[in-house]
């Protein structure tokens, strides 16, 4: 049963997620369409304005796609805080913990923007079979031990919290950063597909967001992880050989 603070957090997360999705759709419609696109990447050399637009899109998109993924962990963190309050012990604001996630997502957004820029400059998407190879690599990543480890850490953060809990805001921020890194470790290759497919592809964006959320919240999610790995690998192989 959710407590009052958890309901407040859940409502805030839902509102922020909705706003991020609306703004993401706005950016894809208003800012990407005027650019010359080829294979999901800009065919002309980037100017500083292109870099700024791409960075803004990546950061907002990361919030839209990843915040629902992090919500169960935020609620667990809030519940532990509530227990400390009831025992009149020092507690940490959940917003500080969330800030750690946001820093990681912003960092990944910057990395993705730089990668986007480099891929466009080298015309990598024009290499025959590149999309197929990327999909196959992403599918195989779903079976790696690192992916499994990160997903376990994201699904069951309680042990990590108990071992690392410190009643200070820097410690809460650091815990948020650590959880954010695990969050990225689960799905960075899925997110990287958007560099190839293009951030204007809302269907792929929504599909990836749904997949990573299913991996996080569905019981026995190994079937989701492994099943998606098989499908992505087969699709990649088909595109590569066809």
Spatial arrangement of strands, main beta sheet = 1-2
Q: How big is the Rg?
A: 19 Å
Taking pLDDT < 50 over at least 5 consecutive residues as the criterion, the unreliable ranges are 36-42
How many distinct beta strands?
Answer: 2
Description:
- This protein has 242 residues and is an all-alpha fold.
- The protein has one domain.
- It has 9 helices and 2 strands.
- The protein has helices spanning 4-32, 48-86, 94-122, 130-141, 145-155, 158-164, 169-197, 202-217, 222-241; strands spanning 37-38, 41-42.
- It has a two-stranded antiparallel ribbon with strand order 1-2.
Brief characterization of the structure:
The protein has 242 residues and is mainly alpha-helical. The chain has helices spanning 4-32, 48-86, 94-122, 130-141, 145-155, 158-164, 169-197, 202-217, 222-241, and strands spanning 37-38, 41-42. The chain has one domain (4-241).
């Amino acid at each position: 049963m959710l407590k009052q603070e958890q309901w407040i957090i859940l409502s805030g997360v839902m509102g922020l997620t909705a706003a991020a999705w609306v703004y993401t759709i706005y950016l894809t419609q208003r800012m990407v369409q005027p650019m010359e696109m080829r294979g999901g990447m800009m065919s002309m050399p980037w100017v500083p304005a292109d870099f700024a637009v791409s960075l803004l899109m990546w950061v907002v998109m990361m919030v839209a796609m990843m915040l629902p993924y992090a919500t169960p962990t935020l609620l667990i963190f809030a519940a532990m805080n509530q227990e400390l309050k009831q025992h009149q012990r020092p507690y940490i604001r959940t917003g500080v913990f969330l800030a750690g996630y946001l820093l990681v997502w912003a960092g990944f957004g910057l990395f993705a923007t730089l990668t986007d820029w480099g891929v466009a400059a080298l015309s990598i998407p024009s290499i025959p079979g590149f999309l197929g190879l990327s999909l196959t690599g992403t599918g195989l990543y779903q079976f790696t031990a690192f992916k499994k480890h990160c997903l376990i850490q994201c699904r069951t953060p309680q042990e990590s919290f108990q071992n690392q809990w410190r009643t200070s805001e820097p410690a809460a921020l650091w815990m948020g950063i650590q959880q954010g890194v695990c969050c990225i470790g689960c799905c960075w290759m899925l997110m990287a597909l958007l560099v190839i497919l293009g951030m204007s592809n809302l269907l792929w964006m929504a599909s990836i967001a749904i997949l990573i959320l299913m991996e996080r919240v569905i019981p026995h999610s190994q079937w989701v992880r492994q099943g998606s790995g098989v499908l992505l690998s087969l699709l990649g192989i088909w595109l590569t050989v066809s």
